[in-house]
Each structure stands twice: as structure tokens, then as C-alpha cells.
Amino acid sequence: MKTRLMTLVVMMVVSISSFSVMAQNAKDVPAQRRVKQKPTPEQMMDRHVKMMEKKLVMDDETAAKFTPLYKEYLQAMKDCRPAVCKKENKAEMTDAEIEKVIQDRFDARQKALDVQKKYFKKFKEVLNAKQLQKVFQQPCMMGKMKPGMKNHRMMRSADNQKCMRHANRGECPLQAK
After folding, report:
1. What's the pTM value of the predicted model, to 2 decimals?
2. In degrees rounded to 5, what are phi and psi of residue 126?
3. pLDDT tens for residues 148-168?
4. What is d(CA 90, CA 44) in angstroms, rounded to the nearest whole number?
5. Does residue 164 form part of some domain?
6. Is 128 in the same domain as 152?
């Protein structure tokens, strides 16, 4: 009985001391390392380019031609985005403002489509058809979700068991490998 009690006391002392050591280590870490820093837009673009290069499985020569062209494409697509509506309460927008926002969205989509057509021709000189498909592929909703979101209550309904675009057709063709 005494040995069990003594063992329990020793275990408690060890666990309490380890917690205090861990707390001291957290205090020693500089504040700038504890805060997760956001990557710059250039870093995000570089990550996106690296990811696409990996996805397309290219040789060095093709990658050297593709990388600057893809960066231009990403920048051109970024420039196509419509301006963000600055009204905080969208219920207070006038009819003219609402129509302008919708028209701006249409214009941005058309501009993006024009950019995609322009760069399709340029990419076609560097990439093969399967690689082109991967560059211009529109992702399905299920492919873009965070892992825990597949069980979200909105996704659990009978209508949304598969990809939202292809719910009635079974497996999503864009996610098939």
C-alpha cells in the first residue's frame, strides 16, 4: 500500500515538474516565432507555381519555359478580379449600386475568360493536352474542402453525397484519377 502511494506521489511530482518546464520553454521562444506569419503574395505565387510544376510532372526544360509564363498568367488572372464591395451593410445598397456590382462581376468573368483563352494559346506551345487540362481544370467542391468539412451537416444531406456539380452522375470526373 505504501509503495503504491509513494509511486503515485512520485508520478504526480514528475508530471507537475514537466508542465512547468514546458511553460518555461514557451516563454523563452521569441514572440515573432510564436506568431504565425502570413506569406507575402510573391511567396504565395511561388508556392502555387511549384505546386503546379509538381502536378504537371515536367522536365527541367519545359519547367523553365512554363514558370515565367504561368506567373504572368496568375498575375493576369489576379488583375481580373472585381473590386471588393466596400459597403458594410449590403442591405443599405441602392438598386443602382447593386446593378453596378453585378455588372462589374460579369465584366470580371469576361475578362478572366479572355485571359484564359489568350494564355491557353501560349501554354499550348509548351505543354501537352493532359497538362493543359490540369492547368485549366475547374476544381470540384469536394476536392477543395478541408478534410473535416466532408462530414459537415450541409454535406451530409442525401442530395449532396457526391460532388455538387455531378451529384446525380456518381463519381466526379474531375476528381477521378
Report:
1. 0.58
2. -105, -35
3. 555 555 555 444 444 444 444
4. 31
5. yes
6. no
